Amino acid sequence: MKTTKPEKQFDAVKMMREIRDAISTETQNMTLEELKSYIKQKLADNKTKPLGQ
User: Fold this and answer.
1) Which residues, 6 or more positions from 36, have their beta carbon under 8 angstroms from its beta carbon?
2) pLDDT tens track of the chain, all 53 residues?
3) First-to-last C-alpha distance (Å) of the chain
4) Could you tell me if 38 and 26 are in contact, meaning their C-beta atoms sit under 8 angstroms apart?
5) Which of 7, 10, 25, 30 is an S-S bond match for 34, by CB 3.0 to 4.6 Å?
6) Spatial contact of 24 and 16, defined as CB atoms under 8 Å apart
7) Residue 23 backbone dihedrals phi, psi, to 5 degrees
């Protein structure tokens, strides 16, 4: 008996890898200070607080 897998409509792993790769490309040559600024800006853009705050 062979079972068939249903087609995925949304692949969370694929999406996460694409997001991670895009962020890595954007930040690959940044200094620590530039990276901190980048993170602060992204959090501000999304109106998100850092964890623990």
Assistant:
1) none
2) 677 877 878 899 999 999 999 999 999 999 999 999 999 998 889 887 777 77
3) 53
4) yes
5) 30
6) no
7) -65, -40
